Amino acid sequence: MAAVLESSSWEEHEEGCGLSGSDISGRSTGSCRSQDKIAWDQHPNHHLGEPTTVECLIRLVDVNEINTAQSYASIKLLVWYFWKDPRLAGRPDSTLPANLWKPRLNLERTRISDLHETVKHFGVTETGDLSCLMRYAACINNRMDLRRFPFDIDGLEVKLIANSYLAGDDTRGCASKDWQLSLKGYRVEADEIVIQDWDVVGYNCNVTPGQGGHHDQVSLTAFVERNTSYYMFKIVFPLIVITIMSFLGFSMNVSDVNDRVAHSSGLLLATVGLLYVVSVEVPKTKYQTVIDKIIFLTILMLALTAIHAVVDHTIDSFHWITVTKQMSMMTVGIYFALYMAILGYIVIPPYYTKSKLVHRLAADDEEHRTHFIHGYKDSKDEWRVNMSGKSDGFDMEADNMI
Prior knowledge:
Largest sheet: 6 strands, mixed
Strand order of the largest sheet: 1-5-6-3-2-9
CATH class of the largest domain: Mainly Beta
């Protein structure tokens, strides 16, 4: 028979276990140093002077939002913990000490006020095998390199560090060597995660080696590409049209200098309006993004056509040279060719770089799926067998627990 608990937080879980001196069945458990003199708030291998090994499965199940302007991302993460506590072997049915030691992964780079930890499952068998499912919902800091915006790829990093949970929400860092993290598998639900303006193209996992092949820190990174088409149709193409329309001023008579300058000035105001639209989407940076360069190029071409109109009028007024329609059309051709050449120089390299990265990440992602998902499933199947009939039908996939 296994004791299985579900609650909304570690604190509520401990209340269910009886922080005031009762276990979950109502029996008295005593204080930190209980009547049987077992230090339940210490990890199982404390008396041996060795850390306890905790096996973990990590699953990034959702990314609600990636906010470029404010540099944060909203995520949901499921973490399974599996460890053995021989002190619980043969203990009466459905009893757990109020201050039982439990492992904990600390989610780094989070906005503390937006971090929510929920215990979705806690079970123990008669042999002292424990399982715990934790859900983390958090906003993590996510600084981006926006030099290639909107042709950029973001590495959304979720960093987890081994910590121990103590009564009173106190924590000890992995330097205390309470427990060792044994990463048995990880997964990013790339096919299920739907993020506005982004697509998941791959993921990987980096670990900080500890002793005996275990880990102290896990960094799970999901690579996402920005939906470029939105910015192409809403900003880049309108800027190209505005630039082409500015060349129509050369079809006017040279003497109509006021109309030609007013034409360029009106288009300039429209370009500045698009500049403010872009400024809402990105944070203030010390460098120029691809969009910034395109807007600057458009403004430069509009200013150049307005100055050219004044120069044409001045030359024609002093009768230095007769400005003909053929000369104006030749000027339009030169300006257009120059504009397209510079535009291609700005746009093509980041687009090509993004395409190469997407293909490489897709290939790496396939390798990760082939290698790690098998290990992930094998670990789950093994624990299904160990907890069979003892965990109240606990679903390891936990799709209904998100």
